[in-house]
Write a structure and sequence with these properties.
This protein is of the alpha/beta class. 55% of the residues lie in helices and 12% in strands. Strands 3-2-1-4-5-6-7 form a seven-stranded parallel sheet, with helices on both faces. The longest helix is centred in the middle third of the chain and has 29 residues, at 98-126. It is globular and about 55 Å long. Pfam families: adh_short.
C-alpha cells in the first residue's frame, strides 16, 4: 500500500527535501505550508502522483483541525507525520519579550503538540505509523543567546521522549531530529535582531553540511526507526561532550554567554 506522508513546513528547507525523498519511494506526500504558493510549488516538483498541497498554520487550533479533516477526507489515515514547521529566534533572557515567548512556544512547541494530538489517534487505530518531530541541536545544547528558541526546541525533545515511552508496543514509533546550522531560509521569519541574524546566517553559510546531506541522514534514520537523530557533522561530538564532560561543556557555554552579554542580540 502506498504510504501517506504529511509534512508541515514542506515548502522549503528540510521539509521540502524530506518530501522529495519520500516521493521517490513511491509514497504520497501532503505538502503543508503557511503559504499556498509554496505548498503548491513543492507538490508540483515531486516525483509521482497523488500528492497534496495544503495550507495550514501550525500555531492555530482551527487551522490544524481543518488540516486533519482534509487528510481524513482525502486519505482516511496517515502513515508518517513530520512536525517540521517552525520559526527561529535569538537573544538572551533580558531583551526578550513575552510576545516573543508566546509566539515561539505556540509555533515551535505547541505546533508539534497540535500535530501529535490530531493525527496520533488514526495511527493508533491502525496500529502502525511514525511521528517525526523536528527539534534542533538548540534543544540539547543549553546554549546562551537563543533563549526562547532553545527552550521551545528542548520542549520538543522532551515531548518526543515522553511520547516514545507512551507509545511503546503500540506499533507507532517516534523520531526527533536535532540538526545544527545548515543553509535554509529560516532567517526569513526569525524573531531576531539584525546583528544576530547576520551571525546566524554566517554560521549557516559556513556549515559543512549541505541541506541534501542533512535530509539524506534524517531520512535514512527515520526509515531505520531511530529515535534521536543528530544529522550534522559536529552534533554527535558536541552531544557526547555535554553528556560525558558536563563541566567542560558548561565552561564553554559560560564563555559563550560572556560574548553574548557583551553584544546583546536584542
Amino acid at each position: 500500500m502506498q504510504r501517506r506522508i504529511l509534512i508541515t513546513g514542506a515548502g522549503s528547507g528540510l521539509g521540502l527535501a524530506l518530501a522529495h525523498r519520500y516521493a521517490r519511494t513511491g509514497a504520497r506526500v501532503a505538502c503543508v505550508d503557511l503559504l499556498g504558493e509554496r505548498a503548491e510549488a513543492a507538490r508540483a516538483a515531486l516525483h509521482g502522483d497523488g500528492h497534496l498541497a495544503l495550507v495550514a498554520d501550525v500555531g492555530d487550533d482551527a487551522s490544524m483541525q481543518a488540516l486533519h479533516d482534509r487528510i481524513v477526507a482525502e486519505w482516511n489515515g496517515l502513515d508518517v507525520l513530520v512536525n517540521n514547521a517552525g520559526i527561529a529566534s535569538g537573544g538572551p533572557m533580558i531583551g526578550t519579550t513575552m510576545e516573543e515567548w508566546r509566539r515561539i512556544l505556540d509555533i515551535d512547541l505547541l505546533g508539534v503538540v497540535r500535530g501529535c494530538r490530531l493525527f496520533l489517534p488514526m495511527m493508533l487505530a491502525a496500529k502502525r505509523g511514525r511521528i517525526v518531530n523536528t527539534a534542533s541541536l538548540a534543544g540539547l545544547a543549553a546554549a546562551p543567546g537563543i533563549m526562547s528558541y532553545g527552550v521551545a526546541k528542548a520542549g520538543v525533545v522532551a515531548l518526543s521522549e515522553q511520547l516514545r515511552a507512551e507509545l511503546h508496543g503500540s506499533g507507532v514509533g517516534v523520531t526527533v531530529l536535532c540538526p545544527a546550522f545548515f543553509r535554509t531560509n529560516l532567517m526569513e521569519t526569525a524573531i531576531i535582531a539584525d546583528d544576530a541574524k547576520r551571525f546566524a546566517q554566517k554560521m549557516m553559510d559556513r556549515s559543512r553540511d549541505t541541506p541534501d546531506q542533512i535530509a539524506d541522514r534524517c531520512f535514512a534514520a527515520i526509515e531505520r526507526g531511530d529515535f534521536l537523530v543528530l544529522p550534522s557533522r559536529l552534533t554527535p561530538w558536541l552531544w557526547r561532550v555535554k553528556r560525558w564532560l558536563p563541566g567542560v561543556y558548561f565552561r564553554q557555554m559560560a564563555r559563550m554567554a560572556k560574548r553574548t552579554t557583551a553584544s546583546p542580540m536584542h
